[in-house]
UniProtKB/TrEMBL annotation:
One of its GO terms (molecular function) is carbohydrate derivative binding. Pathway: Nucleotide-sugar biosynthesis; UDP-N-acetyl-alpha-D-glucosamine biosynthesis; alpha-D-glucosamine 6-phosphate from D-fructose 6-phosphate: step 1/1. The chain holds residues 323 to 664 of 664 of the full protein. Keywords: Aminotransferase, Glutamine amidotransferase, Repeat, Transferase. Its EC number is 2.6.1.16. Residues 41-181, 212-342 form the SIS domain. This is glutamine--fructose-6-phosphate transaminase (isomerizing). It catalyses: D-fructose 6-phosphate + L-glutamine = D-glucosamine 6-phosphate + L-glutamate. One of its GO terms (biological process) is protein N-linked glycosylation.
Length: 342
């Protein structure tokens, strides 16, 4: 039932504090992460030569959000594959690989075909899915249910944030015995229980985002620039705009801005720049300056209190979001970009 909401997607967006709580329930204990579905396979995963994430659409974007922290916490090289592209290329896949399949439904045809392919090639196949009893859950060697609750809206929202949180927990579990990242690991484990509250906080931007969406009604196109932990946020934010507002939108790596996209920038093109506080912050500040110099119509997402350092001239529109541990920030930053494009 969609209750007081206009449509299921809206209900699912606002449900995220709850869905994230159920995703983590019973899995965080005494400074440790326990994923029942992976614990017997962690040793094999730790010894694998690489981790390959495979998915389509939003699920692929969730894997893109996971890559930086998965590499950082596990120390294992991580690659990404869009399921159809892996099949088109018959890409390299070996017995020493761990192939992680990400799918809300667990029934996406391309993802299941890629799973068959990985099984034939002898990789350890791990599933991350929202659907108990799905083909993906049954055919993988092991995996984790994201437990976000049934997702009805065609544009995925709460599954995306829960997928990221499951992959954070997975990275913590794989990297549990790594000394060099212990303090970072503890900081993330301590921050996770409060994440649903931070999501409730960012949901209060509902009216502000409605106002922003209305101001963009006449625009032909929208760019979204992100990098580092928030490269995925740019792609997923743009995907939401395409799927829901039916407007042309491109998510791009900010580091690529000067290698082409900058040529399209003028005062008519709205551009969202994700510039929350992390190791890439100063690089994003200089991207903002360059876009500003081209008279870009800037909308900057920044951490609370950073408005004047991302937009000294006061000429851009600013979306301020709560700051959390860097690898959890994509969970917060996507929420405003899910809201109100309809
Ligand atoms: C499991 C129970 C949960 C119970 C908890 C108590 C299920 C579905 N889950 O949760 O109800 O509260 O124990 O400890 O009964 N799997 C795959 N591929 C996938 C996803 C999962 O093979 O894509 C496998 C896992 O390896 C595992 C099983 O399915 O063997 C259940 O996974 P999950 O629900 O994530 O495990 P728990 O969190 O331990
Ligand atoms: C596509 C949907 O068909 O499948 C996307 O349009 C979705 O919204 C993608 O993200 C993958 O779905 P799933 O269920 O495999 O996560």
């Amino acid at each position: 039932k969609k209750g007081n909401y206009d449509h299921f997607m809206q209900k699912e967006i606002h449900e995220q504090p709850h869905s994230l709580t159920t995703t983590m329930r019973g899995r965080l204990r005494d400074n440790d992460v326990v994923l029942g579905g992976l614990k017997d396979h962690l040793k094999t995963i730790r010894h694998s030569r690489r981790i390959i994430f495979i998915g389509c659409g939003t699920s692929y974007n969730a894997a893109l959000a996971a890559r930086p922290f998965m590499e950082e916490l596990s120390g294992i090289p991580v690659t990404l594959e869009l399921a159809s592209d892996l099949l088109d290329r018959q890409g390299a896949m070996y017995r020493e690989d761990t192939a992680v399949f990400v799918s809300q439904s667990g029934e996406t045809a391309d993802t299941l075909l890629a799973l068959e392919y990985a099984l034939e090639n002898g990789a350890l196949c791990v599933g991350i899915t929202n659907t108990v009893g799905s083909t993906l859950a049954r055919k993988t060697h092991c995996g984790v249910h994201i437990n976000a609750g049934c997702e009805i809206g065609v544009a995925s929202t709460k599954a995306y944030t829960s997928q990221i949180v499951v992959m954070v927990m997975m990275a913590l579990a794989i990297g549990a015995d790594k000394i060099s990242t212990q303090s970072k690991r503890e900081a993330i484990i301590n921050a996770l229980p409060d994440l649903p509250n931070k999501v409730s906080e960012v949901l209060k931007l509902d009216n502000e985002m409605k106002d922003l969406a209305e101001s963009l009604i006449e625009a032909q196109s929208l760019f979204v620039f992100g990098r580092g932990y928030n490269y995925a946020t740019a792609l997923e934010g743009a995907l939401k705009v395409k799927e829901v507002a039916l407007m042309h939108s491109e998510g791009m790596l900010a580091g690529e801005m000067k290698h082409g996209p900058l040529a399209l920038v003028d005062e008519t093109l709205p551009i969202i720049v994700i510039a929350t506080h992390d190791a890439c912050f100063s690089k994003q500040q200089s991207v903002i300056q360059q876009l500003h110099a081209r008279n870009g119509r800037l909308i900057v997402m920044c951490s609370k209190g950073d408005a004047s350092s991302v937009c000294p001239s006061g000429s851009c529109r600013v979306i301020e979001v709560p700051q959390v541990a860097d690898c959890l920030q994509p969970v917060i930053n996507i929420v405003p970009l899910q809201l109100n494009w309809r």
